[in-house]
């Protein structure tokens, strides 16, 4: 259990954990204090939680997809048809994950559209549309990014003052 005084708790209770790590004056475990403050903070927004879950899941998906692509003993020389499919999945999906770190809605849409185009391409070539749940699980952070961005924009619209209210 972390031991720090009530003054530190009051001072840092409304400060983001990154600022605690940078400006912390006490000589205790900074990361532990930041985690404790986040646990005590009642103002964590759902879109923030969704965003960080999507980021962690996206990093995990990306690492696993790259391991699948380049980690095997077999050669990696796709045909033209396979290269086009790889452009959509995992290429577009990973690109969407990367863009979503800065622009959540845009990156999430790139991920979801890439997944849809991949499924359409496979359906056009083989007639099989449902490829199983695994492709959806790998691309799921894209959906979380979209929900997070929509929640954030909805929250922003609720707080924005209208022109009539300003008068």
TrEMBL record:
Source organism, top-level taxon: Bacteria
InterPro entries linked to this entry: DUF7670
The UniProt record lists the keyword Transmembrane helix: yes
Keywords for this protein: Membrane, Transmembrane, Transmembrane helix
Residues annotated as domain DUF7670: 45-156
Pfam families: DUF7670
Transmembrane segments: 49-71, 83-101, 106-124, 130-152
Protein name (record): DUF7670 domain-containing protein
Species this chain originates from: Lacipirellula limnantheis
Taxonomic lineage of the native organism: Bacteria, Pseudomonadati, Planctomycetota, Planctomycetia, Pirellulales
């Amino acid at each position: 259990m972390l031991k720090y005084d009530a003054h530190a708790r009051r001072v840092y209770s409304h400060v983001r954990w990154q600022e605690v790590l940078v400006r912390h004056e006490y000589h205790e475990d900074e990361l532990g204090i930041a985690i404790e403050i986040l646990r005590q903070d009642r103002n964590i927004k759902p879109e923030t939680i969704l965003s960080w879950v999507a980021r962690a899941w996206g990093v995990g998906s990306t690492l696993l997809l790259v391991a699948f692509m380049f980690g095997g003993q077999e050669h990696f020389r796709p045909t033209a048809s396979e290269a086009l499919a790889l452009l959509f999945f995992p290429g577009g999906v990973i690109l969407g994950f990367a863009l979503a770190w800065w622009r959540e809605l845009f990156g999430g849409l790139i991920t979801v559209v890439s997944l849809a185009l991949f499924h359409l391409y496979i359906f056009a070539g083989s007639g099989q549309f449902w490829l199983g749940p695994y492709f959806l699980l790998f691309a799921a952070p894209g959906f979380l990014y979209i929900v997070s961005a929509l929640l954030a924009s909805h929250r922003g619209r609720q707080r924005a003052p209208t022109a009539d209210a300003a008068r």
